[in-house]
Design brief:
Structural class of chain B: alpha/beta
Shape of chain A: elongated
Structural class of chain A: alpha+beta
Strand order of the largest sheet of chain B: 6-7-8-3-9-10-12-11
Number of strands of chain A: 5
Number of helices of chain B: 11
CATH topology of the largest domain in chain B: Rossmann fold
Strand order of the largest sheet of chain A: 1-2-3
Bound molecules: adenosine-5'-triphosphate, magnesium ion
Largest interface: A-C, 41 and 55 residues
Chains: A alpha+beta, B alpha/beta, C mainly alpha
CATH architecture of the largest domain in chain B: 3-Layer(aba) Sandwich
Order of helices and strands of chain A: HHEEEEEHHHHHHHHHH
Oligomer: heterotrimer
CATH class of the largest domain in chain B: Alpha Beta
Helix content of chain A: 55-70%
Radius of gyration of chain B: 21 Å
Radius of gyration of chain A: 27 Å
Distance between the termini of chain B: 30 Å
Shape of chain B: globular
Chain lengths: 385, 340, 329
C-alpha cells in the first residue's frame, strides 16, 4: 500500500475514513494493474501469443474481406485441387501471382486441373469479388484475388486448394475462423456469468452453500466431457436451423467451462477477505456491495481474464471435436470442426492432405491462447496460489 | 563468557579467507558474500551476527559447498584442519566429489533454521537419521538403529524407539529441532554449523536447545559456528563474534570485548537495538534507522555509510575500509580506525 | 485413514448417482420416446409394427410411468446387469458392449501406464536439467501435445503411418483373431494393435503430466529438506531420487484422477477415427441412431469408469502419503 501515512489527522469522521480507504484501495489496484502489465510484457512468449490471438480476431472481423472466393461456390469438376501457393516474386522481381491451373480431360473424359507454372495468374490487390457487408457497408473488394472470380474459369485461384465439392478451402477457413471463435466468445460469456456468480456466492456465503457448489464442481469435473457432449448434442433434432444449433452447441461447450472460473473466483475471494484493505473497508463501514465491486473484483480481473483465455482454448477444441464427429455444427455451417469433418477418414487425408490445414489453425490458436493465458496468470500471481 | 576457553589459542579448525559467493541472476550479480574472513577454533563457539539478508546463511552453505544455483563460490579459501593435523582447502574439492561428501555430515554437520520444513514429511525420522549413519560410519543396521536411539535419548526426546518409526509431522517444533541436532551429532562431527537453530522456537524451548548445544559441545569437544541475528543468544553461547553487513565482515573479536567496547558504529547500533526487560511489549524496538539496501544496489564506499551515525563525507562514501586490527583481539573495518 | 476412506467412498457413491441421473436425463432428452423412433426406422426398412405391438413395447419399458419411476426401474435393471436392448444392433446392450468394455479399459489403462512411464522420467529430467536443450525440447513437445485435439493427433499419426508404410492403423485385432478364443498369440496380436492407439491417447496427458511433474519438482528442489539432505553428504542423484521425486509423485497421482476423464473422452474420439472396437465406437453409432439404451449405458459406464479410477488414485495417494494415511480420525 502506497498512501498509508497521509490519512491520519483529518480522518475524524467515519465518512472521511471511508473515503480515504477507498482512495487507498484505488491506488493499490492501479499500481497492481501496472505491475501485472509490466510482468506480462516481460513474458516474450505470452506477448507473441497475444499478437497471434489478435490476428485471429482480425480474421473474425474481416473474414469476407480476406476471402478470395465465395465460400459457398460449388464446382464438382474442381474437387480436390491442390493448393496453389501464393508466390511473391517472379525470379527476383516482386510480382504477386500463382501458377495457372490448366484444365484437361482425363481418360474418363472428366475435366481435371493441373498446375502449370509456365503460365501465371496475376493476383490483384483489392480485387473485386463477391458482395458482403462489413460494419453495415455493402462492399465487394477483397484484400487480394482475381477480379470477378469464376470457379470454372481457368484464372481462378485456390491458394489452399479445394474440398470434395470444389469449394475454396482458404475462403472457407476465413469464414470458419469466424464461427469457431464466435462460439468460443459466446461460450465464454455464458461461463463468465455462471462461473463468477457461483464462485462469488460460494466464497461469500461459505458454509453449506459453498460445500454444495464445491462438491458439484468436483462431480462435474470427474465426468468425461466428450460422451456427455455427444449425448446432449445427439438429442438436438437434426432439422434445427443453423442458428439454433449454434446456440445449443455453445451452451453445451460452456457447460463445463464455468467450473474453473468459479473455483478461481472463490479462491481469490477467500484470499481477499483476509487482506488488509478489505478488512479496513469493512471496519470503516463500507457496504457489502461496495466492498465487492469497488475493492475485491478489480483485484482479480486478471485472474478471470487468464481463466477465460484458457477456457476459450478448451471451447474451440470442444466445438471442433463435436463437429468433427458430426454431432456439433452441421454443414452448411462453416467452422473449424465442419471443415475437418471433410477430412474424416485416412484415405481422404492421404488423397488431399491440405484438408488438414484447418487443423493447423486450431493448433496455433489453441496454443496461443494457452501461452497467453499462462502469461496473464503468471503475471497476476507470480508466486502461484 | 567469563573465562577465555583454552581452544581460542589453538590452531583454528576452520579458517575462512576472502570468501566470495555471488548469485548470477537474470537481473544481475548479487554479491551475497563479498570477501569474508574468520576463524573457528576447536571446542569454542564462533557467533556470526547481522541483519536479515547480510549473507550469514550463504557463508555457512559455502563452507559445505551446498549453495544453490544460481549461486557460486567465486573466490577464497576454506581451510579445514583435520583431526590428524593436516590442513586442506575445501574449495579444492569438487562440490559433488567423494571427499567433499565425506566432510558434509561427517566432519562438519549443519542444522537449520526451520525444523518443520527441514525434514522430509514422507519419510520416517528413523529413515532420515539412518542415512547419515550409513554414509559416515561402517556400522551394521542394528548398531546404527541403536546409536540413533541413543542420540535421540541424549537430546531429550522421550520414547526414542517409537519415535524412530514416526513421521516428522508427529513431532513438535522443539522436538524436531532436537531431532535435527541428534541427526547432525550422531556422526561425531568436529564442527557443527548451526544456522539460526532457535529462531523458530518459543523462548523456553530456545533456552533448552542452547543448553543442549553447549552440553554437546563440552561432551564432544566440538567447534560450533553459530549464526543468529539475536544478540541475546550470542551473549549466551558464543566465545567470539563476527559481525556481517551486506556480505562483508565489519567487526570481529572475542564476545566480551564486543559487548564491552563495540568498535564499529554498526555494532554499536545493533547493541542499542536489543530489547531490555523494561521496554513494554507494545513499544517499538529502537531499530537502526534506515533500511538494509538490497545487495544489488550496494552503496558506494563503506556500504553502511547511509545509515551511519559517524558518517564522514568525502571518506566513507568514497573508499572502502579494510578489515584491520585495532588491538590484539579486535578487528574492525571502519575509517574511524584506519587513519591511526 | 478410516475417515478419509469413508469420505472417499461416500463421495464416489454420490458421484456415481449423479452420473446416473445425468445419463438418464440425456437418454430422455430427444423429442418423442424411442419406441416412436424405433417404429419410424423399422418403417423405413419396410418392417411394419402394429400400434398394439408398440403399446406393449412402451408398457414393457415402462414409458407410461412417471419419470422418477422410469429412472428407478432403469437403475434397478442396470444394477442387476440388465442393460436393456439395443435396437440398432438388435442385440442386448450387454452383448454389444461386453468385449468392447474390456477393450476400452485396456486402452485407458494402457494410456495411463504410458503417460506415467513417459511423463515422469521426462518431467524429472526437465526439472533437474532446467534450461538445457533437452528441457526445451520436452517443453516444446509438451505444449504441442496440449494444443492438438486428440482426433487430430490420431488422424495425423495414422495418416503419416499409412502414407509411409501403407499400413492402415485401425482395429485392435487382426482378422483371424477377432472371434478366436483367448490365447498367447491373440494377446500378442492385441498388444501390437494397442501400441498406436495408446500412444495417441496418451500424448495429451503426457504433455500435461510432464509440465506438472517438472513444475512440482522445481518447487520441491528449493525446499529446505533438500538442503538438509545435501548437508548430510548424499550425492545429488540420491537426493533427487529419494526426496523431491517422492514429493513430486503425489500430485502426479492425484493428477491421474484429473486426466482420466480426458482419457475416456479421448478414447471415444480415437475409436471413431481409427475404428477401434471400444464402447466409444458403439456409442457414436448408437447416438446417430438414437439408440437410447446403448448410448445411456455408454455415458453411464464412461462416467463410472472415471469415478472408480479416481477413487483408485485417491487410495493410491493415501497409501504413498503418510500425512493422509496416518491422519487422525
Ligand atoms: N537463490 C538466490 N538467488 C539470488 N539471491 C539470493 C539467493 N539466495 C540468497 N540470495 C541473496 O543472498 C543474500 C544473503 O542471503 P542469506 O540467506 O545468506 O541471508 P541471511 O543473512 O542468512 O539472512 P536471514 O537472517 O534472513 O536468514 C540475500 O540478500 C539474498 O538477496
Ligand atoms: Mg539465513
Amino acid at each position: 500500500m502506497v498512501a498509508g501515512s497521509q490519512t491520519g489527522p483529518q480522518a475524524d469522521t467515519p465518512g472521511a475514513l471511508v473515503e480515504d480507504i477507498e482512495a487507498e484501495g484505488e491506488i493499490e489496484v492501479m499500481s497492481q494493474r501496472q505491475l501485472i502489465w509490466r510482468r506480462f510484457r516481460r513474458h516474450r512468449l505470452a506477448m507473441a501469443a497475444t499478437v497471434v490471438v489478435a490476428l485471429f480476431y482480425l480474421i473474425v472481423i474481416f473474414s469476407d474481406f480476406l476471402a478470395t472466393n465465395d465460400p459457398e461456390d460449388i464446382e464438382a469438376a474442381r474437387q480436390y485441387t491442390p493448393p496453389q501457393w501464393l508466390r511473391l516474386f517472379d525470379g527476383w522481381k516482386p510480382d504477386l501471382h500463382v501458377c495457372k491451373l490448366v484444365g484437361k480431360r482425363d481418360e474418363f473424359l472428366r475435366k481435371v486441373y493441373e498446375a502449370d507454372c509456365d503460365q501465371k495468374v496475376d493476383v490483384q490487390i483489392f480485387a473485386k469479388g463477391y458482395e458482403y457487408s462489413l460494419f453495415g457497408l455493402k462492399l465487394d473488394r477483397h484484400l487480394f484475388g482475381v477480379n470477378d472470380p469464376e470457379v470454372t474459369a481457368e484464372d481462378a485461384i485456390f491458394i489452399l486448394g479445394t474440398d470434395v465439392q470444389g469449394r475454396d478451402l482458404y475462403s472457407r477457413l476465413m469464414r470458419g475462423t469466424r464461427l469457431s471463435l464466435l462460439i468460443g466468445l459466446t461460450g465464454i460469456f455464458i461461463s463468465l456469468v455462471v462461473g463468477t456468480s457461483l464462485g462469488a456466492v460460494s466464497g461469500f456465503y461459505g458454509g453449506f452453500v459453498d460445500n454444495l457448489i464445491q462438491r458439484s464442481i468436483e462431480i462435474i469435473r470427474s465426468i468425461p466431457t466428450v460422451p456427455l457432449y455427444l449425448g446432449l448434442a445427439a438429442a438436438f433434432p437434426a432439422d434445427w436451423s443453423v442458428e439454433r444449433r449454434f446456440f445449443a452447441i455453445t451452451i453445451v461447450v460452456s457447460l463445463f467451462a464455468w467450473t474453473e472460473l468459479a473455483r478461481v473466483v472463490r479462491g481469490r475471494y477467500l484470499a481477499m477477505r483476509q487482506e488488509d484493505f478489505v478488512t479496513a473497508a469493512i471496519t470503516a463501514g463500507a457496504s457489502q456491495r461496495r466492498i465487492i465491486f469497488r475493492h475485491m473484483l478489480p483485484s482479480f480481473y486478471s485472474h478471470i481474464i487468464a481463466a477465460s483465455t484458457l477456457n476459450l482454448a478448451f471451447m474451440v477444441i470442444s466445438e471442433t471435436t463435436l463437429s468433427f464427429l458430426g454431432l456439433g455444427l452441421l454443414p452448411p455451417a462453416i467452422s473449424y470442426g465442419t471443415l475437418l469433418f471433410t477430412a474424416q477418414n485416412i484415405q481422404t487425408v492421404a488423397l488431399a492432405p491440405w484438408l488438414l490445414i484447418p487443423g493447423i489453425f486450431v493448433v496455433v490458436l489453441v496454443l496461443s491462447l494457452n501461452f497467453m493465458g499462462d502469461g496473464i496468470r503468471d503475471a497476476a500471481d507470480p508466486y502461484g496460489s | 563468557m567469563s573465562e577465555k576457553p583454552a581452544g581460542l589459542d589453538a590452531e583454528p579448525v576452520i579458517s575462512v579467507r576472502d570468501l566470495e559467493t555471488h548469485f548470477f541472476t537474470d537481473e544481475g550479480i548479487v554479491r551475497a558474500v563479498d570477501g569474508v574472513n574468520f576463524d573457528v577454533h576447536p571446542g569454542t563457539t564462533m557467533g556470526i551476527v547481522g541483519e536479515s539478508g547480510c549473507g550469514k546463511s550463504i557463508t555457512a552453505k559455502s563452507i559445505l559447498q551446498i549453495v544453490e544455483a544460481p549461486g557460486r563460490i567465486v573466490n577464497g579459501e576454506i581451510n579445514y584442519r583435520r583431526g590428524s593435523g593436516e590442513t586442506v582447502n575445501l574449495l579444492n574439492y569438487e562440490s559433488g566429489s567423494g571427499n567433499m561428501r565425506a566432510i558434509r555430515g561427517g566432519d562438519i554437520s549443519m542444522i537449520f533454521q526451520e525444523p518443520m520444513t527441514s525434514f522430509s514429511g514422507l519419510h520416517t525420522f528413523g529413515n532420515q537419521i539412518d542415512e547419515a549413519l550409513r554414509l559416515h560410519t561402517n556400522l551394521a543396521k542394528q548398531e546404527r538403529f541403536d546409536l540413533a536411539v541413543d542420540w535421540l535419548a541424549r537430546v531429550g526426546i522421550p520414547n526414542p524407539v517409537q519415535r524412530m518409526h514416526e513421521y516428522p509431522f508427529r513431532f513438535s517444533g522443539g522436538q524436531l529441532q532436537r531431532a535435527m541436532i541428534a541427526m547432525a551429532m550422531c556422526t561425531n562431527p568436529r564442527v557443527l554449523i548451526a544456522d539460526e537453530p532457535t529462531t523458530a522456537l518459543d523462548v523456553t524451548t530456545q533456552a533448552q536447545i542452547l543448553d543442549l548445544l553447549q552440553r554437546m559441545q563440552e561432551e564432544n569437544d566440538m567447534a560450533i559456528l553459530f549464526i543468529t541475528h539475536d544478540l541475546g543468544v550470542i551473549s549466551e553461547i558464543a566465545d567470539e563474534v563476527t559481525v556481517m553487513y551486506l556480505g562483508k565482515v565489519v567487526e570481529s573479536g572475542p564476545v566480551f570485548s564486543f559487548f564491552d567496547e563495540p568498535k564499529h558504529p554498526y555494532s554499536r547500533a545493533l547493541q542499542t537495538s536489543i530489547p531490555s526487560m523494561f521496554t513494554s511489549s507494545r513499544e517499538r524496538l529502537p531499530s537502526i534507522s534506515g533500511s538494509i539496501p538490497h545487495p544489488q544496489n550496494r552503496p558506494s564506499g563503506c556500504a553502511f555509510h547511509p545509515r551511519c551515525q559517524s558518517f564522514m563525507e568525502g571518506t566513507c562514501d568514497v573508499g572502502e575500509p579494510e578489515l584491520v586490527s585495532v588491538n590484539e583481539e579486535q578487528e574492525v573495518s571502519c575509517f574511524l580506525y584506519e587513519e591511526r | 485413514m478410516l475417515a478419509f476412506f469413508v469420505r472417499r467412498v461416500i463421495y464416489a457413491i454420490i458421484a456415481m448417482w449423479a452420473v446416473s441421473v445425468i445419463s438418464f436425463v440425456i437418454i430422455n432428452l430427444p423429442a418423442g420416446d424411442f419406441v416412436t423412433t424405433y417404429i419410424a426406422t423399422q418403417l423405413a426398412t419396410g418392417n411394419l409394427i402394429l400400434e398394439d405391438e408398440a403399446e406393449s413395447l412402451r408398457e414393457f419399458y415402462g414409458l407410461n410411468d412417471p419419470v422418477y419411476v422410469q429412472y428407478a426401474k432403469w437403475m434397478t435393471r442396470i444394477l442387476q446387469g440388465q442393460l436393456g436392448f439395443s435396437f440398432e444392433f438388435e442385440a442386448p446392450v450387454r452383448t454389444v458392449l461386453g468385449m468392447n468394455l474390456l477393450n476400452t479399459v485396456l486402452l485407458g489403462a494402457g494410456a495411463v501406464l504410458f503417460i506415467w512411464t513417459v511423463a515422469i522420467p521426462i518431467g524429472i529430467y526437465s526439472a533437474v536439467k532446467q534450461y538445457s536443450p533437452g528441457d526445451y525440447i520436452a517443453t516444446f513437445f509438451g505444449f504441442l501435445g496440449l494444443g492438438i485435439p486428440d482426433f487430430l493427433i490420431a488422424l495425423v499419426m495414422a495418416w503419416v503411418i499409412f502414407d509411409t508404410t501403407g499400413f492402415l492403423a485401425t482395429d485392435l485385432y487382426s482378422a483371424g483373431y477377432r472371434t478366436a478364443p483367448w490365447s498367447l498369440a491373440k494377446i500378442w496380436d492385441l498388444a501390437k494393435h494397442l501400441v498406436l492407439p495408446v500412444v495417441i491417447l496418451g500424448t495429451a496427458g503426457t504433455a500435461t503430466l510432464v509440465r506438472i511433474t517438472r513444475a512440482n519438482l522445481l518447487d520441491e528442489l528449493k525446499k529446505p529438506y533438500v538442503t538438509t539432505a545435501r548437508a548430510k553428504g548424499l550425492t545429488e542423484w540420491q537426493i533427487i531420487m529419494k526426496y523431491p521425486v517422492r514429493y513430486a509423485l503425489n500430485p502426479v497421482i492425484s493428477l491421474t484422477a484429473y486426466i482420466l476423464p480426458f482419457i475416456i473422452s479421448g478414447s471415444v474420439v480415437l475409436s471413431y477415427v481409427l475404428d477401434l472396437p471400444t464402447i466409444g465406437r458403439d456409442f457414436l453409432r448408437a447416438l446417430t441412431a438414437q439408440d437410447i439404451y446403448l448410448s445411456g449405458a455408454v455415458i453411464l459406464f464412461s462416467g463410472w469408469l472415471t469415478i472408480i479410477g479416481t477413487f483408485g488414485s485417491d487410495l493410491l495417494l493415501a497409501w504413498v502419503d503418510p500425512r493422509i494415511r496416518l491422519e487422525e480420525d
